Amino acid sequence: NHSVERRVGEKLPADQTVLILHAKVAQKSYGNEKRFFCPPPCVYLSGPGWKLKQEQGSGHAHCPQPTLGCSSCPPQGFGCAKALYISDADKRKHFRLVLKLFFSNGQEIGTFHSKLIKVISKPSQKKQSLKNTDLCISSGSKVSLFNRLRSQTVSTRYLSVEGGAFIASARQWAAFTLHLADERYNRSEFPLREGYIRYGSVVQLICTATGVTLPPLIIRKVSKQYAMLDVDEPISQLHKCAFQFQGSDRMYLCLSTEKVIQFQASPCPKEANRELLNDGSCWTIIGTEMVEYTFSESLACAREPVSPVPLIAALQVGRAPPSGHLLGAPPATGPGDRSFPEPHLQAGVALPEGPPHTSTAHPLPDPPPSLFS
């Protein structure tokens, strides 16, 4: 039994966290082609418990090291699965990824599931309707942005943050919260709005891991390397788009190798509703999901997997528990007690649908330190 009594949100010195990041949609592959999931699903190990396991293992041969696909993966590690795809022989419309985590000696740590991923045949080229909200992107949701030259997989670079600065990384991607702004206010106030994001909207990108933020941007639809200035339809998954700096003279968010710079687009004399971009200014946008599992084992080496780990779907609390009592303890009752509902947790365990897609993650060096605070 790996359960530990604690107050909600309380951190324990031996906490171990498994964080899975992945895209909301996956494009199906047809025939012999392999459309690898982009961005690739990533796994992060964080929390002091992994380090305690490492220190414990240094004095006990029977306490192994955690690994993400290889025995040399550090105890606080990162890995990504770059070669996953779904073929047209698979008829499912949704699926989950399954991560199996092992110690270096083969002992199983546990099995962890991603959130549901929607399968699409190709990015929608039609004008997106808000009736199909599965493919729309809402304010406050998380997205990833990547740039790919001439549809070449090897040229893919992801917008990321490193050392407090925005970069275009070929190794790691970051999730950004995409907020819709109210254009009636000035930049310093920048109040946020709810709703689905349309082209022509003023938005702000905030890195979920570091909190680093770009200035307000106007999101534009891209068609044949032109930014379309008069399009206001909803944004859809895997659309090509550009980000114009609000109030600037045609300046757009652009990459140059690993640097993120500003690029000045060229006006079109015959078509005032278009501006010509370069390759580095054209980004593909996709929604992302994050699922986090945290558990805490005793310092004694556990022989059984920690999974299935319950996921809290809802938290209903009638009143704050008395000082010194844990959440979930029965509330006091008496003649003067008003009928408060008993605090309780509703938890459900995410299970895969259909045959699991088990992946082996490959570790990459230098994970962002902000994810391992």
From TrEMBL:
For this protein, the record's InterPro entries field holds:
Beta-trefoil_DNA-bd_dom, BTD_sf, CLS_fam, p53-like_TF_DNA-bd_sf, RBP-J/Cbf11/Cbf12_DNA-bd, RBP-J/Cbf11_DNA-bd_sf
Compartment annotation = Nucleus
Q: Where are the transmembrane segments?
A: none
Q: Region Disordered: list its residue ranges.
A: 324-373
**Bias-annotated ranges (Pro residues):** 364-373
Single GO cellular component term: nucleus
Picking any one GO molecular function of the record gives: DNA-binding transcription activator activity, RNA polymerase II-specific
Q: What is its main location?
A: nucleus
Q: Which family is annotated?
A: Belongs to the Su(H) family.
Q: Which UniProt keywords apply?
A: DNA-binding, Nucleus, Transcription, Transcription regulation
> Has UniProt tagged this entry with the keyword Coiled coil?
no
Query: Coiled-coil segments, which residues?
Result: none
Question: This protein is called what?
Answer: Recombination signal binding protein for immunoglobulin kappa J region like
Q: Does the keyword Transmembrane helix apply?
A: no
Q: Pinpoint the RBP-J/Cbf11/Cbf12 DNA binding domain residues.
A: 17-134
